[in-house]
Amino acid sequence: MTLQITRPVQTDLAEAAVFFRHTIEDTFLRNHIPVVPPTELAQECAWKLEALQADLKSCGAERYFLIARERGGIVGTVALSPASEFVREHIPAIYHAWTCITTVLVKPSWQCRGIGTQLLSAALGELRRREEPGFLLDTGYATARVYWTAKLGEPDHVLPRFWYGKDDHCFWVRGVDRPTFPLHGA
Fold first, then answer.
1. Which is it for the CA torsion 176, 54, 77, 93, positive or negative?
2. In terms of residue numbers, what domain contains 96?
3. N or C terminus: which one in the chain shows less Cβ crowding within 10 Å?
């Protein structure tokens, strides 16, 4: 495997749109998310693409994406972004200015090959380069919770049965240099 992790370019947009749709559809299926209106799936994909476009337009200042490529195609993504209003509502105020690691997606046929770990490592490297003290991460997908709990330990905050009356929404607050250890008071 000759994985390359690079910054996106304008010509990635069309392929990224297909990638987002494919991985998000698969995520919904794997997490047994009830049939949702097609507009909800389309909206989720549109948000990801808009975030990528914001990165390209701002040269990484507004959002900062990294793209994992294998054999010339996109097989994974990760992004750094400001904490959303939803995240800020559920974490202590002292962490509101911290960067969120978001849009960690790996193409279904490429999962379980260490690509997510490499994307996380690259994102942490960028945060270190920026001299940021820590990061936030959140998810409402049960499969992602298992993955992130294995990588980062138990979440700091949990909203029980938040999604569809069955799935928790989880939040992690971690230091950049020791991401597997919760911060005191998080």
1. positive
2. 4-175
3. N
